[in-house]
Write a structure and sequence with these properties.
Layout: E1 4-6, H1 9-22, E2 26-31, H2 37-49, E3 52-57, H3 77-85, E4 93-97, H4 101-104, H5 131-134, H6 138-153, E5 157-161, H7 165-177, E6 183-187, H8 208-213, H9 216-229, H10 235-248, E7 252-259, E8 275-283, E9 286-294
Parallel strand pairs: 1-4, 2-3, 2-5, 3-4, 5-6
Antiparallel strand pairs: 7-8, 8-9
Length: about 300
């Protein structure tokens, strides 16, 4: 299928006006490129519910700290477009929005927060939990760029993967707080069929040996879910099996946490609201995250 590629906000707004005139239902899949099967699944899910789908491809400087991998982050626009063109979406119009940094940040952007100028969005509370502990800049950058993408594309629905579960919670709350007229759909994590490792653009950094050890964290999450489904609701017991599985394979675990799905606060027991069991670990210089839902679905 042919895929239209737009590079400026002006081009996107012109396209969006045409969609409005035709009565199209527009879906957005926001990405930083380096597309994999997980991203393509989001696009295919969007195509089942929308007549037009925008896939944004933008490596967002605002969500990187100065010491992080902004410059090394894979940029593969040509192959990303080729992957999207290979999809069979006969009843859906597909558009790629690949804006320039100058379009998204007219005042310029630095990874050094003290040097940043202009408007930024922070979700106090939710963004300070979990990932916010080690990456305090991250969700400020995510919320800001996602809000800009919402304004530029005006989607009826936006699709995000559950792998980034805290991001999903933060963006859903931002949409509610800032009165965006759209629906956020959280799509289950796509995993490697053999190992269960969650698909991620950063998996390309892993060595062969690291790829063999990395799935241990997910095995721990699955063991914890089995315990929960057998009636165990105590957080310490659920966390313990995740840590045990990770330690067997020598994973450098940054955190494992059992959190309320409402505010991401740590909980000691899984109650009727359910809970999110999540964590982060490092394989060499590569940082990975994963999670599993206990007793609820988005």
């Amino acid at each position: 299928m042919s895929t239209q590629v737009l590079h400026t906000v002006e081009e996107m707004r012109k396209w969006r006006a045409e969609q409005r005139m035709s009565g199209a239902q527009v879906g957005l899949v926001a990405t930083m490129g380096a597309l994999h099967s997980g991203h393509l699944h989001l696009v295919q899910t969007a195509a089942t519910e929308c007549t037009s789908v925008v896939v944004s491809i933008f490596v967002n400087p605002a969500q990187f700290a100065p010491h992080e991998d902004l410059q090394e982050y894979p940029r593969t626009l040509s192959s990303d477009i080729a992957q999207l063109q290979s999809l069979s979406l006969p009843d859906t119009s597909l558009v790629v929005f690949a804006p320039r940094v100058s379009d998204m940040y007219p005042r310029g952007i630095s990874t050094n927060r003290t040097l940043q100028r202009g408007a930024f969005i922070e979700m106090l509370g939710l963004s300070e939990m979990l990932e916010g502990g080690t990456r305090p800049h991250f969700f400020r950058g995510v919320c800001t760029v996602v809000a800009k993408l919402f304004h530029a594309t005006e989607p009826h629905r936006a699709y995000f993967g559950q792998k980034d579960v805290q991001q999903c919670c933060v963006i859903k709350a931002m949409v509610d707080d800032l009165l965006f007229p759209l629906h956020i759909k959280v799509v289950p994590t796509v995993r490697d069929k053999e190992s269960g490792l969650a698909l991620s653009s950063r998996n390309v950094y892993l060595t062969r040996e690291e790829k063999e050890r990395a799935p241990a964290f997910y095995r721990g999450l699955c063991r914890a879910k089995e315990l929960f489904e057998s009636g165990v609701v105590e957080g310490d017991k659920l966390l313990e099996v995740v840590r045990e599985e990770a330690e067997k394979c020598g994973l450098d675990v940054e955190y494992v946490c059992l959190s309320s799905p409402d505010d991401l606060q740590s909980v000691d027991v899984v109650d009727g609201r359910g809970a999110i069991l999540s964590g982060a670990w490092r394989m060499g210089s590569t940082r990975l995250i994963d999670n599993i839902l206990l007793g609820f679905e988005f």
